[in-house]
Amino acid sequence: MEHSIGFVMDWRLFYVIILGAVCCSLAFRDFKKIWQIMSIGRAEDLTSNVPARIWLVVRNAILQTKMFKDFWPGVFHAFILFGFVIVTLGTAEHLIDSVIRGFTFELFLGPLYAPLVLAQDVLQWMIVIAVAYFLTRRLITRPARMSKDPRHQRDGLIVLAFTAGHMLADILTYAFLVRAGDPHGQAVWRPLSQGLANFLMSVDPSTAQTLGWLFWAIHVATVFVFLMYIPHSKHLHVFTAGPNIFLARLEPRGFLSKINFEDETQTTFGVSKLPEWSWKDILDAYTCTACGRCNEFCPTTITGKPLQPMKLIQDLKIYAQNTGAAYKKDPAAADAPPMISEETGLSYDAVWACTTCAACVEACPVMIEHVDKIVDMRRALVLMEGRMPAELQNTFTNWERQSNPWGMPSDTRDAWAQELKVPRLADKPDAEYLFYVGCAGSFNDRNKKISTAFVKILQKAGIDFAILGKEELCNGETARRAGNEYLAKTMIDANIETLKKYSVKKILTTCPHCFNTMKNEYPEFGFRAESVQHHTDFINSLMKSGKLQVQAKKDSVKIAFHDSCYLGRYNEVYEEPRDALRAIGGVQVIEMPRNRKKGLCCGAGGARMWMEETLGKRINVERVEEALGEKPDVIAAGCPFCQVMLEDGVKEKHSTTPVRDVAEIVADQI
Prior knowledge:
The chain is mainly alpha-helical. Helix content is 54%, strand content 5%. The chain folds into 4 domains: 6-246, Fumarate Reductase Cytochrome B subunit, CATH 1.20.950; 274-387, Fumarate Reductase Iron-sulfur Protein, Chain B, domain 2, CATH 1.10.1060; 397-543, Rossmann fold (3-Layer(aba) Sandwich), CATH 3.40.50.1860; 551-667, Rossmann fold (3-Layer(aba) Sandwich). The protein has helices at residues 11-40, 50-62, 71-99, 106-109, 113-141, 150-180, 191-198, 205-229, 237-246, 279-287, 293-297, 299-302, 309-329, 348-353, 359-363, 370-385, 390-402, 438-443, 445-460, 477-481, 485-501, 512-525, 535-545, 575-582, 619-628, 640-652, 662-667, and strands at 6-7, 100-101, 433-436, 465-466, 506-509, 531-534, 557-561, 587-590, 634-637, 659-661. The strands form 3 sheets. Strands 4-3-5-6 form a 4-stranded parallel beta sheet. The protein has a 4-stranded parallel beta sheet with strand order 8-7-9-10, sandwiched between helices. Helix 10 packs across helix 13 (309-329). The termini are far apart.
């Protein structure tokens, strides 16, 4: 098709210039305010490993992998996302044509232009259908995870109205222009517009022409007005989601940045006010879509506790908006309220309710990092204000005095191993593996049985290993998550000194918290082992290699396996413990409804093991009820914290179903 193009000054040109200038200038003003608030945050370089970051964007922003975990909302969201990309090319053509009459992308795309126009014609209707679906969800079905905040509800309806108006105006533009015979309609490649135009045959061509350009004006207006509205909407993620995903921290999920206590210029620790955030933390807050996926999987929200991850991030956003101007005028901002206060809506109880299970992080489609922010706020409370639950203060004292949370005499740390003839590194410094036992496996009577079972497996398989014995200290993980970074550092540094003394290269643990810390966090403190393996993974490898032979169960046994958060979501170890159990003849591994990445926390993480659970339903009871609902013969775990919590939950439900560690189940069959 030949095109005659040229510059024409008519009402469309002036309409676009005036509307665009007003709306774009107001939008620029508001985007600038957001940028200024972000600039208040401390510097953080997140530009390394560009290929990995691009892949994150492809996987999460373009392919929408997390969105499709909730299938139908994911499908309709994809219609809107990809539909807008294609339809926006048509909108761009509208705008350019208002300046350069006769312009079309066919000049550049050639034969590819026809399928593009056809896609636009179809996708406009698909987006309208998607809007109808989401309106039904908001107004009729109302999933529990959706925000009940009137502001979010109103915002969602406004955006859906904009979206529907934008598409319907374009649909009617082409339908009327097709009816009028205007070349701008390009009816040959718009079968749906042609079909609608056939219903408009009673409209005379002149009127159709007028109506076509009226709806064109409405379509263009929705573009500029929506741009002006976006900075005030949770749909700001249209612009921020891609960058936020690209700039995500690439360290393993189990990594927690350390505080540099040697930096004499650092006068505060943790986060209690806006400038102590990084700019990326502020970007996280502005990127939140208020979709509620984090709440849906959060164990504290599920059991009626004060912490709701979505509300937390939204409250942080409001805090940034309300205090940003004050900090910009005066960095001291003495009149700004504390971050955790009644004025901000961020409650003390919410900050301490978190189990750090990372279910919220796993669920978030735009990769917001909730847990790191909560830990940073705990750091400020503990290190700067000395505020913490009373029972946690007692636990800190026990760590300080005996390097274990129970306060048991540190010289009894290896008493459990005396009858097993377990070598110590002091006597066998060239051992291939260090079995880092951990506090639970050394002092808790129930967990000592797990340590014993694992030792029997190692001995049966002929593994060359040793323990540290009295030289072992707490790994420091729980103290870190409880905000006491200084105490954690003293234990970590002392542990690392011992590990380096013996040139330890390979480490085995029965505790996912020890495993995660030594694998993902010790490197930043100056020690990187050649390998760190969780015992369920190691047992599975022994069975697969033939080094460990097991006998089949005499009777068929159904085992429900519980995923530990620090083993599963933090380190992607899901199948290894299941494979180890399945390798035993007669064992049938059954799944709870919430498993693997969607597994429900036992309630012990984030130092909650050492705090009273007085608000809402007990998390361990919620999890045990789910397990018992599958009628298993045994509930299996791979974490000493989970073991304790699940057993307590079973007792509370007056059940006799045993809770056993994978090592115990395997050891019974060797």
